[in-house]
Specification:
The complex is a heterodimer of chains A (323) and B (556).
Chain A (H helix, E strand, L loop, with lengths): L21 H11 L1 H19 L10 E2 L5 H4 L1 E2 L3 H8 L3 H19 L1 H11 L4 H12 L6 H12 L5 H8 L11 H29 L3 H9 L4 H12 L1 H13 L6 H7 L11 H11 L3 H28 L7
Antiparallel strand pairs in A: 1-2
Helix pairs in contact in A: 4-16, 5-10, 5-15, 6-10, 7-10, 8-14, 13-16, 15-16
Chain B lengths: L1 H17 L6 H4 L3 H4 L34 E9 L11 H14 L1 E9 L3 H10 L6 E4 L2 H9 L3 E2 L3 H7 L1 H14 L1 E2 L2 E2 L2 E4 L6 E6 H6 L10 H14 L26 H7 L10 H15 L13 H9 L5 E5 L6 H8 L5 E3 L14 E2 L4 E8 L4 H15 L1 H9 L6 E3 L5 E3 L15 H4 L11 H12 L5 H13 L4 E2 L9 H22 L6 H29 L6
Parallel strand pairs in B: 1-2, 11-15
Antiparallel strand pairs in B: 3-12, 4-12, 5-6, 7-12, 8-9, 8-10, 13-14
Helix pairs in contact in B: 7-8, 8-15, 11-21, 18-19, 20-21
The chains are: A mainly alpha (323), B alpha+beta (556).
Amino acid sequence: MIFRGTKRPDGAAAVPKADVKPKAGLSRHLKSEWQLYALLVIPMAFLILFKYVPMFGLVGAFENYKVARGFFGSEWVGLKEFGNLLKHRDFLPALRNTLLLNFLDLLFGFPMPIILALLLNEIRSKWFKRVTQTLLYLPHFLSWVIIGALAYQLFGLNSGIVNNLLESAGLSRIPFLQENTRWLATYVAVGVWQSMGWGIIVYLAAISGINPELYEAATVDGAGRFRQALCVTLPGIRSTIVVLLILNLGRIMGGSFERIYAMQNVATTEYTMTIPVLIYRWGILGTQFSRAIALGLFQSVVGLILVLITDRVAKRLGEGGML
Amino acid sequence: MKKLLAAAMAALMTLGLTACGGGDPAATVNAPDATTAAPGAATQDPASAAATAPADEGYADYSAGFPQKVTIEIPVYDRAFEGWDVTNNYYTQWAQSEFGDKYNVEVKYVAVGRSTEVQDYTQMLTSHTAPTIIMHYDMPQAVTYYTQDVMQELDNAEIANYAPTFWSYSQESTETYGAIDGKTMFTFAVRPAADNYTTIIRKDWVEAAGYKVEDLTTLEKYNEMLLKWKELGLGVDGEMLTQNNYVYSYSFRDWPNDPQWRALYSDLGVADLTTDATKDWLKNLNYMYNNGLVDPEFYLRDDYTKAEAEFVAGNVGTYQFYIAAGTDVFSATLANDPGATFAIVPPGAIVPEGKVAQSRGYWPFGMIMGINYEATDEERIATWMFLEWLSQPDVIWKWQNGVENENYTLNSDGIPVKVADYAGQYKLSNNNNKDYWCLVTEGLRYPTDELFDKANLLGWAPPGYEQLAADTLKYYKEIDEYRTPDALFPVVIASLTEYKTELNELFKQLYVKVATIPEADFESAYADACQEYLDAGYQEILDEKQSLIDSGSFTP
């Protein structure tokens, strides 16, 4: 057991932390808590095996990679594939679309869980709160293939239920998914619907950690429910919001391949060519592995840079940041 | 106890995770040049030399079985037939007991998604789990596999030695078409001349519009009839998204056409967007779209299931598919509309006046097969022996028909007649086990043309729809003289490999855009589309092909 108190159980004065030799302490600590460290081996092995070892494959971006020759036998071409990548006609549209779709997701999708968490926090009926939460979570567990099929069943131009209702009401049909700008709006709306419920979990957990005395003090000061949410709850979860914002900004160069793949159609292609789609097309369909790996590496590096910049900005603004 | 349990769990899971790592691919690469025995040389390793004796031709004799267990992985298309285990069923077990156990070979079937085969193969190849046979129906994709160096060079004499029956069918094709860059890379299943791909039409709608199906002899008449359908509110023409196999423009081509022109533009792997034939095809599609004659969301019908659903629901009046005795399209349509009747669309119905009903001719071979570069000599030889076993008349008969008096009974011509709704242990897959025996033949084989036709009709005709199968066969024969195969090039066309995938995607976008644009804007939209397509790589492909054609390096 680790002795943490200022006073030992036998009443003797605790040894100040600074006096403990770190090496002896670490060794004793490891000896006494080895079971916990043994359990840590599992996630560490997972992390190393599935997150770090595959990074070796990035070497393929600098080779003319051929499956049969492997990473060691393929011809080394240096930065040639990056040059080809930047010159490729699909690269800039894919970069633009990736940034645009993720920025719109961030703009509309990021605030929604915060708003929902604030609203749910104000519900006093426990069963209603739980049922609402569960209903909000559910879309997160649906695969994008199912959601994509549902979207076309609902919003399809000629046979979608929504359009059938509009026509029955004497209105004209709307190409929700078969006109570029409307496709973009539908894509973002469906994404927000799918993810907002899951996102509130972290915020509700953060809200539960706010000191209740702050609400009591606010009540005494005459603050109503809305004012309490604005002046107590929201500042109380500010650091959580910042951390999640940093994480989300790191994904602004990423994006879901499945989501676009499930919702795209060949009549509306203005915004559907994104970096993940291009990687799939080059790597899996076209067996141009080196170019696909180079694009993946480019995507990851830019994502990392964005995380670092955001973290620095957050720190400058007085938040703790992540790194 | 808890401590021990925690430690044990950690150790177990860590071992489990690390066990996921693969071996060094370089260590398992089989270098065919170094290890493949030349004719006249024995191929067995020294340790097993005592167990096998070289045959006269110099190849090891494995007729008594391999001294050590050999595992071959045979690919099989998985079409997601309900209730069918594609890799473990009576017939795969039978292959093991009849062939595998006899020769000390483990026959392991590997499922490959029919609609996702390229993705599946790519992923299996990169993870070194691809089957022993690498197969594809179309040469452009087979060549793409070749450019990734994932197949080993084949020795024709070795195939002939271990699979003489199979070789007797495939020798001509292999020697004519199997070489790339001067090396034999592919061998082939045989393809008997028959095709059950056809278009059915709602006969009751045609007649309600005041026409007879046999009167639909030109595209103009067909479009007139579609206008009547629209006036009567019956439905529209069914259309699928055109992708991957580019055979759409044949009926709009001039006849006769120059073999060099065909070699330049006819290609399953890349669409000929810039030809006059394609322009005319698009112009007609654009006319149909703007006048409400075709399914307005045709570009969403990107597989047969979706297209069939539209036909069954009565939204469209035509549907293209491979007609087979087991199809449910008729019964499903009748369930929605008991008055529905069906016919086969005559080939002239898609041909403008003044043109002839051309069509793409199949190459004289069926499945294209290469051997995985990682396969050992023994695995490759066992694969030839497996193909030889599969080629035996009694063996392929059972694969195709099942067991007499269970799956079928013989009629007076000696042709098997399927027992309707048979569901016993010998049940065949929904397409008569085709995905298993397609490795050696693409169709039934009978001693006379008459028996061949009769057997095909029985296989294609759903009960009560024999006339549809007969008409499919009749129309196939009618246009036989206008059927031309694509040219084959004996070398890799580098630009085709480079741009094929991107051009396939671009073609879909461009042709849908041009087809759905207002008629007045067609010319400019088509010109812009052609320019974009040429700039995206098609011009490079045409230039490379032209230089090969100029040097005579192609088989028309």
